Amino acid sequence: EYETRSTMNPMLARVIASETGNYFSTFTINKGKKDGVDTQMAVITSEGLVGYTYEVFDTTSKVITIIDDQASLAALIESSRDQAGPSARRGGGGGGEPLCRMYYLSADSVPRPGDRVITSGVGVSFPKGLLIGYVRESTRAIEDNKHYIVVEPAADFEHIENVLVLRYY
Predict the structure, then answer these.
(1) Of 64, 78, 83, 132, which one has the greatest count of Cβ atoms within 10 A?
(2) What is the 3-state secondary structure (H, E, C) of the chain?
(3) What is the per-residue pLDDT across 25-48, written as a single tens digit (0 to 9) for each?
């Protein structure tokens, strides 16, 4: 994965602290400002996007994961190219398994289970095309803004030890 992402200036980092619980919502890595890490940098594993840096210190950084309720980034359905708005993705694993919700899809968007969900490159300075996960189900509501899809993340949130920080600008 390091070689695959070489154009994004990747840096290997180790998880040194995390909140308690079955799944990581936030965690701390052993790289910071002195290593060229800044806020809003994508953090991935070989499986897919884990989250992004939101607080950076000299030698450590805090990462918010895509399954955290406060996480938000733009995404799209790879097969249809349907995009969701700038606050497209929101965490929402609750107490069960780690899942995400993708909001602000157009009313006529009907993604299929198994469709790949990737970063769109819109909004924050995330590179386009990072794998977020796969569509598990789609809901339809009377109000357009209530329509969302449930996304099963590609990354394994129970076993995060080492990550890559993508230091791109």
Answers:
(1) 132
(2) CCCCCHHHCEEEEEEEEECCCCCCCEEEECCCHHHCCCCCCEEECCCCEEEEEEEECCCCEEEEECCCCCCCCCEEECCCCCECCCCCEEECCCCCCCCEEEECCCCCCCCCCCCEEEECCCCCCCCCCCEEEEEEEECCCCCHHHCEEEEEECCCCCCCCEEEEECCC
(3) 899 999 999 999 999 999 999 999
Which of residues 93 and 60 earns the better pLDDT score?
A: 60
Burial of 146 (0-12, 13-18, 19+ CB in 10 A): exposed
pTM: 0.86
